[in-house]
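Troubleshooting: if your tokenizer reports a length mismatch, compare your output against this known-good record of 143 residues.
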Amino acid sequence: MAKQVYYEDVEEGMEIPPLVKNPTTQQLVKWAGASGDYYQIHYDKDFALASGLPGVIVHGRLKSSFLAELLSDWVGEEGAVKKVSVQHRGMDFPGEQLTCKGKVTKKYVQDGEHIIELEIWTENPRGEKTAPGSAVVALPSRG
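Known-good structure output:
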């Protein structure tokens, strides 16, 4: 975990430090067991190919959890992730690097909380945003 980020350190338009993930087929099998999503396109190559896919694909909800990890790492122990919304718009494949990114879109104080709104997304090695979304977090203030 990085050092604590404070509301005063954040500016609209700034990007937060990325989180790089390298999902493996083994991780997808573990996620299937943990999440209850046993759809074979996530771990059975022959089934995925027979379904018209180019191969096994990463679970959308696993990508959402990677984005939640990005946010919780960034806000630190004194911050809070308030809301996360993610759309599943593209396929990602085990063995390919998946980069989770975020950009601050708005900051304000509401009901005594120091709120940051962000655009978040996963990006594949081809630069495609495969899971775009948004988030709201609260950060501590130095004041």
